[in-house]
Write a structure and sequence with these properties.
The chain has one domain: TIM Barrel, CATH 3.20.20.140. Helix content is about 40%, strand content about 20%. It is built from ten helices and ten strands. The strands form two sheets. An eight-stranded parallel beta sheet has the order 1-4-5-6-7-8-9-10, with helices on both faces. It has a two-stranded antiparallel sheet with strand order 2-3. The protein is globular, with a radius of gyration of 16 Å. It starts with a strand and ends with a helix. One of its GO terms (molecular function) is carboxy-lyase activity. Keywords: Hydrolase, Lyase.
């Protein structure tokens, strides 16, 4: 089985709606045991997080909740505590490009991450979209908060993959997820310099096709032990399952 660290739900950029049932059907097709769900397409994060709560309640053994937090909202810390105190979330999601802020220049982030840290849940950060979501920006935040655990989504995507690995390498509290990263050289660099203990499989469903995200690992000839870490154990550890 597989753990998919990073999926979404709702309308795509083309306007297609993807439901919870669609997600579960996709998971069943590709033998994905659990998926880490956040919902991004909306305005007010509490409403989006309520939908994730409902999904976790409906499928508690399949859906892992990530609370979507906007540091520009006045009640961001209250929303962190509301979600994490509920027991229905095992992670936090930041998307600085969608919410329109520079991570390394947002003075609210430090207080929010201080509020997250005692819960000991992973903080999933979108990386790879200039100029607001660079891995270097999030690395500066991770360096200031060594007791918090960060996961840099997409390994910096297509333009910032090498830099993402370089940023993560000296920071033991940073993992990377593989969703959408298709550059063989970047994947090889991550495997060689971060190792399988700090790489987490993810698909970014429905924006990426799970089958493609799975088969892209074929060129790397992973050992069964390393594949187990990337596709299952690392997510299980961070989610504390």
């Amino acid at each position: 089985m597989i753990h998919d660290f990073h999926v979404h739900m709702g309308k795509s950029s083309k306007g297609t709606s993807y439901t919870l049932r669609d997600l579960i059907d996709s998971m069943d097709r590709f033998e994905i045991e659990r998926s880490g769900l956040s919902i991004l397409n909306g305005v007010l994060t509490p409403e989006l997080n309520d939908r994730v709560m409902a999904a976790v309640k409906e499928y508690p053994d399949r859906i892992v909740g990530f609370a979507y937090i906007n540091p520009r909202e006045p009640g961001a810390i209250d929303e962190v505590r509301r979600c994490l105190d509920s027991g229905l979330f095992r992670g936090i999601k930041f998307h600085s490009w969608k919410h329109g802020y520079f991570p390394d220049n947002n003075t609210a982030l430090d207080g929010i991450i201080d509020a997250i840290t005692p819960y000991d849940v992973p903080i999933l950060c979108h990386t790879g979209t200039a100029p607001l979501s660079l891995p270097q920006q999030w690395a500066s935040i991770a360096a200031r908060h060594p007791k918090a655990t960060f996961v840099f989504a997409h390994i910096g995507y297509l333009d910032f993959g090498y830099g993402c690995v370089e940023c993560a390498k000296p920071l033991p509290n940073v993992y990377v997820d593989t969703a959408g990263q298709v550059e063989i050289q970047v994947m090889e660099k991550a495997l060689e310099e971060l190792g399988p203990d700090r790489i987490i499989f993810a698909t970014d469903w429905p924006y990426k096709y799970p089958g493609s995200e799975i088969v892209k690992f074929e060129p790397y000839h992973l050992s069964p032990e390393d594949r187990q870490k990337i596709f299952y154990d690392n997510a299980k550890k961070l989610w504390k399952l």
